């Protein structure tokens, strides 16, 4: 298969592109949703010995979702690590990240979505702010602190969170 043409159908908060794909003798048309590049982290507070998650309303789920801290890379030259440190401060209130470890970068839904999410493990120790998100971005985030046992017992429905929690189960005893 070969992409022969790409057209922008919608260019708003996200992008939607129409792709023409050549598959042998057939020419197919497909749409691709392009949210951009995201990062997310399973955050562990080493002083409190708790994992720190967020709860927020998500449009796709049409309900509040409990998940790991996450956000989009800003346009320009922001690295995934810089974006993640920014998100941890905005959402959780930790200005300093003591340890950051890349777990995996995933395609959450590659059938029609171009998004990638870099998933990390982060250790923090000194909360310097309240967190809760950025008002100008209309974020209304509640922090959720869980012990290891509470985290392990919970049923996670968000894919990036499930991957990070499973990684912790296998790698952080």
UniProtKB/TrEMBL annotation:
InterPro entries: NDP_pyrophosphatase, NUDIX_hydrolase-like_dom_sf, NUDIX_hydrolase_dom. SUPFAM superfamilies: Nudix (SSF55811). One of its GO terms (molecular function) is ADP-sugar diphosphatase activity. GO terms for biological process: nucleoside phosphate metabolic process; ribose phosphate metabolic process. It holds the Pfam family NUDIX. It comes from the Bacteria. A motif (Nudix box) lies at residues 71-94. Residues 34-164 form the Nudix hydrolase domain. The keyword Magnesium applies. Keywords: Hydrolase, Magnesium, Metal-binding. GO terms for cellular component: cytosol. PROSITE patterns: NUDIX. Mg(2+) binds at residues 70, 87, 91, 139. PANTHER family: NUDIX HYDROLASE DOMAIN-CONTAINING PROTEIN (PTHR11839:SF18), UDP/ADP-SUGAR PYROPHOSPHATASE (PTHR11839). This is GDP-mannose pyrophosphatase.
């Amino acid at each position: 298969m070969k992409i022969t043409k790409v057209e922008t159908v919608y260019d708003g908060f996200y992008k939607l592109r129409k792709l023409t794909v050549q598959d042998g003798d057939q020419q197919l048309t497909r749409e691709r949703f392009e949210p951009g590049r995201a990062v997310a982290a399973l955050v562990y507070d080493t002083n409190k010995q708790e994992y720190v998650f967020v709860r927020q309303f998500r449009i796709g789920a049409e309900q509040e979702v409990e998940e790991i801290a996450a956000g989009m890379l800003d346009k320009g030259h922001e690295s995934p690590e810089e974006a993640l440190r920014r998100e941890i401060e905005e959402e959780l209130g930790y200005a300093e990240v003591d340890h950051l470890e890349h777990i995996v970068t995933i395609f959450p839904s590659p059938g029609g979505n171009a998004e990638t999410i870099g998933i990390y493990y982060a250790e923090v120790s000194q909360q310097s702010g309240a967190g809760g998100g950025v008002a100008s971005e209309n974020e209304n985030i509640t922090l959720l602190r869980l012990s290891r046992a509470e985290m392990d017992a919970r049923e996670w429905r968000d894919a990036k969170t499930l991957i990070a929690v499973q990684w912790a189960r296998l790698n952080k005893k």
